[in-house]
Amino acid sequence: MERGVGHEKLVWSDPFAIELDWLDANGHLNMAYYHVMFDRTVDLALEAIGCGDTYRARHAASIFNVETHVLYRREVRGHDRLRVSFQLLGRDNKRLHGYQTMVRLGDDELVATSESLFVHVDLATRSAAPLPPLVVAGADAMIDAHKGANTPRYAGRRIAPLDTTPT
Question: Is the pLDDT of residue 138 over 60?
Fold first, then answer.
């Protein structure tokens, strides 16, 4: 996997062990479990910026994922061990832009990436709300710390429309 100076400052999960009941009929990791591992690592990042479980309970506010693009690069098989990173790329007054990598331990192969847009939500009104100053400070500190890592190669990708012209 391509790693730049500063990758150690990203938020990293503990290793995940792929369980056999996580496999689908094709004998590889069911796509739902990619999202489970990405989501658990997002939780670590949100805690680190002061917007985790304690914040949600005290302030009746939370972070919702509103858009995600996952890129599956390599097959994940039973008994593989993986780690997931989280890199905070940017923010505005209500939103966070995150990028994640999933790396297989042993060969350091990049197996998947996930890019997401998150929004801060007031749980009483269920609507977008500005990030509070303490969370802004935590997010800005994380963004600054993560600037030392490479700009993610696959960030900003989209699925291009297919050419449906008959051949």
Answer: yes
Q: Residue 121: inside a domain, yes or no?
A: yes
Query: Average pLDDT in the 124-147 region?
Result: 97
When pLDDT is averaged across residues 103-112 and rounded to a whole number, the result is 96
The pLDDT score that the predictor gives to residue 5 is: 59
How many other β-carbons are positioned within 10 Å of the β-carbon of residue 134?
Answer: 13
- Is this prediction's pTM over 0.90? yes
CB atoms within 10 A of CB 110: 17
C-alpha 76: how far from chain center: 18
Contact 109, 1 (CB under 8 A): yes
Look at residue 65 and tell me if it is in a domain: yes
Q: Are 65 and 116 in contact (CB under 8 A)?
A: yes
Phi and psi at 70, nearest 5°, equal -105, 135
Does any domain span residue 11? yes
Question: How many helices and strands, by DSSP H and E, does the chain display?
Answer: 3, 7
What are the tokens at 105?
């331990």
**Number of domains making up the chain:** 1
Residue 151 in any domain: the answer is no
- CATH assignment at residue 122: 3.10.129.10
